[in-house]
Amino acid sequence: xxxxxxxxxxxxxxxxxxxxxxxxxxxxxxxxxxxxxxxxxxxxxxxxxxxxxxxxxxxxxxxxxxxxxxxxxxxxxxxxxxxxxxxxxxxxxxxxxxxxxxxxxxxxxxxxxxxxxxxxxxxxxxxxxxxxxxxxxxxxxxxxxxxxxxxxxxxxxxxxxxxxxxxxxxxxxxxxxxxxxxxxxxxxxxxxxxxxxxxxxxxxxxxxxxxxxxxxxxxxxxxxxxxxxxxxxxxxxxxxxxxxxxxxxxxxxxxxxxxxxxxxxxxxxxxxxxxxxxxxxxxxxxxxxxxxxxxxxxxxxxxxxxxxxxxxxxxxxxxxxxxxxxxxxxxxxxxxxxxxxxxxxxxxxxxxxxxxxxxxxxx
Length: 363
Description:
Layout: H1 2-23, H2 28-31, H3 34-58, H4 63-77, H5 81-96, H6 103-125, E1 133-135, E2 145-147, H7 154-170, H8 174-191, H9 195-209, H10 213-236, E3 244-245, E4 248-249, H11 250-253, H12 257-267, H13 285-292, H14 294-311, H15 315-327, H16 339-356
């Protein structure tokens, strides 16, 4: 019994260290330096390998988790850059699925995320690492002077806090939610980031109306229809440069992301049935899934969304998932470096296990 508890504690500690290290992947220090990027990647791979070794010794790998591990292994074996990214989003999710209902464990991981952010913030504040201030004269920006706080871009800094804020709300940590909300408002104004702001407003709006049973049904159907129609929008409109609709230039509104998606479309030779080998990624999860993952992989993502909303009856998690779908419009959240994306995968594994095999044990 003592050894089991020690292994569980070790797994949680190592996973928290993983989350802490992963946060630095969004800094300019790691993103713009090949050596630092390689060190960060190898450290994260080592931590994941060590955690799975401990899970194997402990006998904690459940049947449904094993299926996801096999799928991840297949993605890695293909040596396709996009599929490898997907695999390393799934692997931390498999680990985290054992902690999904353990509030103490969740708070520990949230603490690691907060510590990672403020470590980066302090390095920037004391000029240990050079930070940038971007000038944005766009009419849709929240601020013309955009701080980065040593993150790779202003959005990353604000989004990092936004994801922790939404998770704190999901787990009903009221005091932390209030503190993070106030800090989020400040950092959003300092960075001039719109996507995190809209995502949090959307999330809170869904929560407000989620008490009405019929509203949740509308949200579930609407989210699936939205995901299903995105490939047609990319194929028919974006690829042909048709983004002036209803008097709005959506390419301008989305900071020219649509033209970047159009370029990826033509670079990849249009739409592929199977995953396309490409090292090019854009700031849109949907575009990456459809153009780099191909029709087959996007269909798998659609199945993922359908089964998630079918089995999810928790209003907080449902709102959280819908916020994830909204963020994918202008951010690539297909990553294992953010607790937000990892929690989505972990919750999905938990729901499938609950539906088909019985509830996962809480660590």
